[in-house]
Specification:
The complex is a heterodimer of chains A (514) and B (121). Chain A has 514 residues and is of the alpha+beta class. In chain A, the strands form four sheets. Chain A has a five-stranded antiparallel β-sheet. A five-stranded antiparallel β-sheet of chain A has the order 7-6-10-9-8, with helices on both faces. In chain A, strands 12-14-15-17-16 form a five-stranded mixed β-sheet, with helices on one face. Chain A is built from 16 helices and 17 strands. The radius of gyration of chain A is 50 Å and the shape is rod-shaped. Chain B contains five helices and five strands. Chain B has a five-stranded parallel β-sheet. With 121 residues, chain B is an alpha/beta fold. In chain B, α3 links the parallel β3 and β4. Chain B is 36% helix and 21% strand. The chains are: A alpha+beta (514), B alpha/beta (121). At the A-B interface, α9, α10 and α11 of A face α1 of B.
Chain lengths: 514, 121
């Protein structure tokens, strides 16, 4: 005896039995069962339906009708309430079912009477009568709400991903072992590597060598919760070899209270750093200029006032008649000396002022060896007297210059003449001049084995105006000050290295603009 | 007899100071030095006591006035210091508090009234 338990087709059930009493008994029993199942199915929260072999709905429960907003759904072809895009899939499924096979899990989209899309998930089972397929049974759940929520999540994830991908800051994620597990597009651009070269690797791929250890220690402490995350700067290296300043802004990544890694926003701050450096340099320059002005002020008020005070005082004395002729002559001699001294100071100051200005000075191309030749000719007498040995080593790549020739002549003259002046009498004086090229700079070194100077004591004043450090030899304290002014007027720099009783080396750095 | 010592690297200024002092009090015993180092090195040869007047310049190349004062203090000698300088800048006067030995500040050239003033002290 076969019977299906699906309501709506019970009329097709044919039960044959000889014993009518038995039959009535069974029939009434069946009816009770049927009634139970019908109620169950009618009130089920699932969507339940059957179709015949032509796919026409032969039965549907209340939920199915409610969800699809149909009052009566029977006699409608199931195909027609499935969304167009899925009808072809359904046709294939239906053929499978007709062959007697169930479709265990399938997602479908129905179109309700008001046009609303209904997402469902469930299964199709062939409806059989005497082993013959006569249609299908469908058991589905309405998953529309879940689908919408999922859809929303996907959309928002997509939006977030787009944001991260297109943001101007670079973002990377590192696991607790320090391996990069994610990097956005901007980061790949920033370091010049692609995904295959970075994902799974550690920061030493792009962090400048000397910084790797420090940064690793920082992140180790951070992951151990010993630090509060804060941003920091470091040097990085682009794939093309360029060195850049980066800033890391880290946050810890948690997965249910457990730290699983770090998420880092990385910024290229090279330009900011450069600006900072420029500002620092500007401030330094202004400070130096201000110091020079103060010094100049001091000189005018002290050095210039001294002979003036003498002239005033001495000429007052001349008015005194009680002074004898011998004294008068002495006074006049001192007045004369004072006015000469005053004149010298004024001349010095104008020289110094001139050496500071770099306006309207003509540059020309010339060879350093020619200048040295003319300087040694000018200094011939002093060189002979001191029996000085001059050694000149000029690198052929560091010989030609395009600058103010008279300035360089004056600079080298001063340094040579200083070398001779401050020689150590105990030993043979040797002055060495070397030139070399260092990137875009031309470097001139002048080294002597003279008496040297204690830079710890005098270092800060060495290039100062009217600063003298040796009182056994005549000097005004003007030479090095002017030399520095002239080097700076040429856009260069001058450095000194010296040890008392060993010697002195001046290093001049000029722009090599040939 | 008042004893006066002048320490100043400017020879003309020293000559001038001597002449002015002598025009006020011809009996003063005056000694001039252009090298402050020499004064410190030979301090025991100079008869310095608490009534000795020392006129000191500040702006000297090898050892300036302030350095001289520090070195002088180390010798244990005492005298009356008067500063004789060619400019009167504020920063220098601020330094005065550190040196209570300094009696007064004079701006060059020295005037007769200045001399009358310090001879009375």
């Amino acid at each position: 005896m076969t019977a299906t338990l699906i309501p709506g087709i019970e009329k097709k059930i044919v039960i044959k039995h000889e014993d009518v009493t038995e039959r009535t008994k069974i029939e009434s029993k069946l009816k009770i069962n049927e009634q139970n199942y019908r109620t169950l199915i009618e009130n089920s929260q699932d969507l339940i339906f059957t179709t015949n072999i032509n796919c026409v709905v032969t039965f549907s429960n209340k939920k199915f009708k409610d969800v699809l907003k149909f009052i009566e759904i029977e006699k409608i072809n199931l195909r027609n309430i499935i969304i167009k895009e899925l009808r072809e899939d359904f046709r294939k499924n239906f053929l499978t079912i007709l062959k007697g096979n169930a479709i265990k899990t399938v997602e479908l989209i129905f179109v309700a009477k008001n046009g609303e899309k209904i997402f469902v998930e469930g299964s199709f089972i062939p409806l059989k009568k005497d082993d013959e397929v006569i249609g299908l049974q469908g058991f589905f759940k309405n998953i529309t709400e879940r689908k919408i929520a999922e859809d929303r999540l996907i959309k928002s994830q997509l939006r977030y991903k787009n944001l991260v991908e297109n943001i101007n800051d670079a973002i990377i994620i590192k696991n607790i072992y320090g391996n990069i597990t994610y990097a956005n597009r901007r980061f790949f651009e920033l370091v010049g590597y692609d995904e295959s070269e970075l994902i799974g690797f550690k920061i030493d791929k792009y962090v400048y060598k000397i910084w790797v250890q420090r940064i690793n220690t920082y992140y180790k402490d951070l992951l151990n919760n010993r630090l509060v995350p804060k941003s920091f700067d470091y040097l990085a290296k682009h794939a093309n070899g360029k060195i850049k300043w980066f800033e890391d802004k880290p946050t810890l990544l948690y997965d249910s209270l457990k730290i699983v890694g770090t998420q880092i926003v990385i910024r290229d701050i090279t330009e900011i750093k450069q600006k900072e450096d420029e500002f620092k340099k500007l401030i330094e320059d202004l400070k130096n200029k201000n110091n020079e002005m103060m010094q100049f002020n001091y000189i005018v008020s002290h050095n210039l006032r001294a002979p003036i005070a003498n002239i005033i005082g001495l000429s007052n004395l001349l008015e005194n008649t009680s002074i004898n002729e011998l004294e008068q002559n002495k006074i006049i001699k001192f007045i004369k000396n004072s006015s000469v001294k005053m004149d010298e100071i004024v001349k010095d100051l104008s020289l110094v002022l001139n050496s500071k200005t770099n306006l309207n000075i003509k540059t020309e191309r010339f060879f350093i060896h020619n200048i040295i030749h003319s300087i040694t000719e000018t200094l011939e007498k002093q060189i002979k007297e001191s029996s000085c040995i001059i050694i000149v080593e000029i690198d052929s790549s560091a010989n030609e210059l395009n600058t103010v020739k008279s300035y360089l002549e004056s600079i080298l003259y001063n340094l040579f003449s200083n070398g001779i002046k401050y020689r150590a009498n105990k030993r043979q004086l040797i002055i060495k001049l070397r030139t070399k090229k260092n990137n875009d700079k031309l470097i001139i070194e002048i080294e002597d084995n003279g008496i040297g100077i204690d830079l710890k004591q005098h270092g800060s004043h060495i290039f100062g105006l009217y600063k003298r450090f040796n009182f056994d030899v005549d000097g005004k304290g003007l030479g090095l000050h002017m030399t520095k002014n002239q080097v700076e007027a040429l856009g260069g720099k001058i450095y000194i290295e010296s040890k008392p009783n060993k010697g002195t080396m001046f290093k001049i750095e000029l722009k090599s603009n040939i | 007899m008042t004893k006066i010592i002048i320490v100043d690297d400017d020879e003309a200024s020293n000559y001038l100071t001597e002449l002015i002092i002598k025009s006020v009090d011809a009996n003063c015993k005056i000694q001039s030095f252009t090298n402050p180092k020499e004064v410190i090195d030979t301090i025991n040869l100079l008869e310095i006591d608490e009534n000795t007047i020392l006129l000191l310049d500040l702006n000297m190349p090898e050892m300036n006035g302030w350095e001289f004062l520090d070195k002088f203090e180390n010798t244990g000698k005492i005298c009356k210091f008067f500063i004789l300088t060619c400019s009167s800048s504020i920063t220098e006067k601020e330094n005065l508090e550190k040196y209570p030995n300094i009696k007064y500040f004079f701006t060059k050239p020295l005037a007769k009234q200045n001399i009358e003033f310090f001879l009375k002290i």
